[in-house]
Design brief:
- The complex is a heterodimer of chains A (109) and B (118).
- Chain A is mostly beta strands.
- Helix content of chain A is 0%, strand content 50%.
- In chain A, a hairpin with a 6-residue loop joins strand 4 and strand 5.
- Chain A is globular and about 40 Å long.
- Chain B is globular, with a radius of gyration of 13 Å.
- Chain B is built from no helices and eleven strands.
- In chain B, strands 2, 4, 5, 6, 9, 10 and 11 form a seven-stranded mixed beta sheet that branches. A four-stranded antiparallel beta sheet of chain B has the order 1-3-8-7, with no helix packed on it.
- Chain B is an all-beta fold and 118 residues long.
- In chain B, 0% of the residues lie in helices and 52% in strands.
- The termini of chain B are far apart.
- At the A-B interface, strand 5, strand 9 and strand 10 of A face strand 5 and strand 10 of B.
């Protein structure tokens, strides 16, 4: 089973700063990696799929990169509404099982 | 606009069977390529994918929970049902259903919170 590790656990930044979140997989994923944003009391929201494709409605300040085992979510300039928890998610080959990372919390500094 | 809505009991007792329903709007469950997953999130923890059902009735389960899960669909009601048998306090969580693409989940319901307690 593929295990996802996210770092850092918490990222404390100010509005306007750049956020760089990491997701590392225990085995190669090709580019089958997605990123979600979750705010308190809300369902997760898809931001990025297939490592670097922005979902409908995802602002351009969000970008995804990486392949194989190392992936990055970058928020170029934090807006107040971006402070949330971010999860990465992978899909294994066959059967197509999904797993999520432990999450990175982006806090206001 | 595609929406999903989860319903189920707020409280169940240990050893009972939990039944959750996901009702879809704006898309037919029977449409080719349609897939729906169930995902849960214990309080303060990360997300855990549980099961998926496809338009052609293919079903896939989490390896760790497959003996306790059953996923099914009722296309006439446009609903997906998940049952979890022999529940335990560790099954306390918010349960979500989501439209599932090949590699990710793109439309999520708002979730339903279930507490397992005697």
């Amino acid at each position: 089973e593929i295990v996802l590790t996210q770092s850092p656990v918490t990222l404390s930044l100010s509005p306007g700063e750049r956020a760089t979140l990491s997701c590392r997989a225990s085995q190669s994923l090709s580019n089958y990696l997605a990123w979600y944003q979750q705010k308190p009391g809300q369902a997760p929201r898809l931001l990025i799929y297939d490592a670097s494709s922005r979902a409908t409605g995802t602002p351009a300040r969000f970008s995804g990169s990486g392949s194989g085992t190392d992936f990055t979510l970058t928020i170029s300039s934090l807006e107040p509404e971006d402070f949330a928890v971010y999860y990465c998610q992978q899909r294994s080959g066959w059967p197509p099982l999904f797993t999520f990372g432990p999450g990175t919390r982006v806090d206001i500094k | 606009q595609v929406t999903l809505k989860e319903t189920g009991p707020a409280l169940v007792k240990p050893t009972q069977t939990l039944t959750l329903t996901c009702t879809l709007s704006g898309v037919a469950l029977s449409s080719s390529g349609m897939r729906v997953s169930w995902i849960r999130q214990p309080p303060g923890k990360t997300l855990e994918w549980l099961a998926r059902i496809d338009w052609d009735d293919e079903k896939i389960y989490s390896t760790s929970l497959k003996t306790r899960l059953t996923i099914s669909k009722d296309t006439s009601k446009n609903q997906v049902v998940l049952t979890v048998t022999n529940v335990d306090p560790a099954d306390t969580a918010t349960y979500y259903c989501a439209r599932t693409r090949t590699n990710y989940m793109d439309v999520w319901g708002t979730g339903t919170t279930v507490t397992v307690s005697s």
